[in-house]
Each structure stands twice: as structure tokens, then as C-alpha cells.
């Protein structure tokens, strides 16, 4: 059984992002890049699935040389093998999905984990696009998972509750916070990861379907206003909430 995880290398959410001089991309100067937070749940679930069902795990990432940093973290957590689809080109979501789908097919992976969303461009679509391209079943935003033989039972987070879904392998699962608690890499894991090779492959060229025309930061927030410091301020506060902000 081959279990794959698709992992992105993204700006740390604590980074202060500014738009680059081309007004179309972010300025990466001084930004720390990390494993996409939702992909850590995907790595953990791949490891737990292997521990239960056996098989082999592989992490796949599309991007430049810097992605090796996040790939190494997955290897240190316990993933067996790694593939970097190495490119400096700009890929939109469907191009990312097509490229990853080709590699998933080459790996003959039957269970594939994605994060529910990449916190850089936030589209939340690549996993489902890959499922469609490969003809795999897919369950998104998963918070609980059981795989027995060919059967997959997953719980999804929906507004105000949970939905229980059943499907079969091959399957793509996109992971949500709450599914598991990602393990820390042990010292043994970190040492073992140093010996694991990252296979580099040149991805097939794909054409983008969308083009980023411009990026802009949200308007600066208005400074806060203090209406008063005791109960006498309440009527004015209510008036402002009604008439100015229009929230009540
Ligand atoms: C080399 C490179 C340069 C880029 N430069 C730009 C740019 O300058 N401007 C721009 O607008 N976009 C750029 N992109 C696209 C951007 O980096 C996004 O990562 C990509 O579009 C996916 O974002 P999304 O919101 O569609 O992913 P989502 O659909 O939110 O991601 C869902 C899941 O898909 C998987 N995934 C997503 N991306 C990857 C990946 N690359 N490798 C492995 N798994 C992945 C992860 O599991 C993730 O949790 C670039 C992409 C690449 C590969």
C-alpha cells in the first residue's frame, strides 16, 4: 500500500507580508517559510495510517529548492520517501493539481492526504482537483478517519456539526485541524532524515488557466474610539452600533 502526502512550503502566518514591486506577488524578503500548517495534519495521518495498515509513505512537493526544508521536516517526523517536483515557475491551482496528480499516478498511491487549504493563496481546491483528475474518491475537511480494508469512513466538519461519509479506496483526504495532533520529530527521526534522499524530478510543463493581475493589502484599520468609561456611555454606544456601524 502506497500512502502519499502532498505538502506545501508557505510563509509563516506570523510573517508581515508586503506586496512585491511587480504588484502581483508577495515580497519574500525576510519571510520565514514553514510547512503549511494543515499539511502537518496530513503528514501525521499518513504516518498513523501506515502504522495501522502497513505500506510505504511518500511526501510530494512542487516548488523550488527551498521546499526541501519542509520536506525534511516530514521525513524527520517519519515519512519514508520524498519527491520534489522542482521548478521556479509560477503555477496556478489547476496546474499544481495536474502536476501533483501525475506524480501520485506514477507513485501508484491509493491513499493521498492533502491539507484542506494552503495558507499562502488559500484556494482550498488542489486536493479535490487532483481527485477529479485521477478519478479517485475524495472527502474534504476531515476531522476523523477510519480505513478498514477497502472501506473509508470519514467525519467532515460542517457548519454547526459533523457529517459522516463512507467511501472506498483509492481516496484523497483533505485534513482539518482536530483530526490529530502532529507529532514532534524525535532526535532519532531527525538523524534518520539526514540519510533519506529527496528525489528531484522536473515536472511536466503545464499552462496556467488563471493569471494574477494585481495584489493589494487591505485598507489600514481605523484607530479605535473610546466613547466613555462607564455605563453612561451605553446609549451612545448603541446609537453608533445602530446608525454608524449598522451591526444591530
Ligand atoms: C514554484 C511556484 C511559484 C509560485 N509563485 C506564485 C506567484 O508568484 N504568484 C501566485 O499567485 N501563485 C504562485 N504560486 C502558487 C502558490 O504557491 C500556491 O501554492 C498554489 O497555487 C496552491 O495554492 P492554493 O491556494 O491553490 O492551494 P490549496 O488548494 O489551498 O492547497 C490545498 C492543499 O494542496 C496541497 N498543495 C498546494 N500546493 C502544493 C504544492 N506546491 N506542492 C505540494 N502540495 C501542494 C497541500 O496539501 C495543500 O494543503 C506558485 C507555485 C509554485 C509551485
Automatic annotation (TrEMBL):
CDD domains named in the record: ETF_beta
Domain of life: Bacteria
Classification via Gene3D superfamilies: HUPs
Residue ranges annotated for the Electron transfer flavoprotein alpha/beta-subunit N-terminal domain, each copy included: 23-210
Record's keyword annotation contains Electron transport: yes
Keyword annotations from UniProtKB, A to Z: Electron transport, Transport
InterPro entries: ET-Flavoprotein_bsu_CS (IPR000049), ETF_a/b_N (IPR014730), ETF_b (IPR012255), ETF_beta_N (IPR033948), Rossmann-like_a/b/a_fold (IPR014729)
GO molecular function: electron transfer activity
Keyword flag Electron transport: yes
SMART domains registered for this protein in UniProt: ETF
PANTHER family recorded: ELECTRON TRANSFER FLAVOPROTEIN BETA-SUBUNIT, ELECTRON TRANSFER FLAVOPROTEIN SUBUNIT BETA
Family: Belongs to the ETF beta-subunit/FixA family.
Protein's UniProt name: Electron transfer flavoprotein subunit beta
Amino acid at each position: 500500500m502506497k500512502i502519499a502526502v502532498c505538502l506545501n512550503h508557505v510563509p509563516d502566518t506570523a510573517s508581515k507580508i508586503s506586496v512585491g514591486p511587480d504588484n502581483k506577488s508577495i515580497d519574500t524578503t525576510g519571510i520565514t517559510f514553514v510547512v503549511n500548517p494543515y499539511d502537518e495534519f496530513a503528514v501525521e495521518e499518513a504516518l498513523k495510517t501506515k502504522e495501522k495498515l502497513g505500506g510505504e509513505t511518500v511526501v510530494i512537493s512542487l516548488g523550488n529548492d527551498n521546499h526541501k526544508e519542509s520536506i525534511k521536516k516530514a521525513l524527520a517526523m517519519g515519512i519514508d520517501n520524498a519527491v520534489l517536483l522542482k521548478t521556479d515557475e509560477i503555477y496556478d491551482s489547476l496546474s499544481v493539481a495536474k502536476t501533483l496528480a501525475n506524480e501520485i499516478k506514477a507513485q501508484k498511491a491509493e491513499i493521498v492526504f492533502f491539507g484542506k487549504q494552503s495558507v499562502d493563496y488559500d484556494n482550498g481546491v488542489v486536493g479535490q482537483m487532483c481527485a477529479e483528475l485521477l478519478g479517485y474518491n475524495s472527502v474534504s475537511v476531515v476531522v476523523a478517519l477510519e480505513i478498514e480494508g477497502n472501506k473509508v469512513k470519514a467525519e467532515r466538519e460542517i457548519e454547526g456539526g459533523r457529517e459522516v461519509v463512507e467511501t472506498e479506496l483509492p481516496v484523497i483526504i483533505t485534513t482539518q485541524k482536530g483530526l490529530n495532533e502532529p507529532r514532534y520529530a524525535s532526535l532519532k527521526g531527525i538523524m534518520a532524515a539526514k540519510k533519506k534522499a529527496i528525489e528531484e524530478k522536473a515536472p511536466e510543463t503545464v499552462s496556467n488557466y488563471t493569471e494574477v493581475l494585481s495584489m493589494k493589502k487591505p485598507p489600514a484599520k481605523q484607530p479605535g474610539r473610546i466613547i466613555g468609561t462607564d455605563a453612561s456611555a451605553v446609549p451612545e454606544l448603541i446609537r453608533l452600533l445602530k446608525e454608524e456601524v449598522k451591526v444591530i
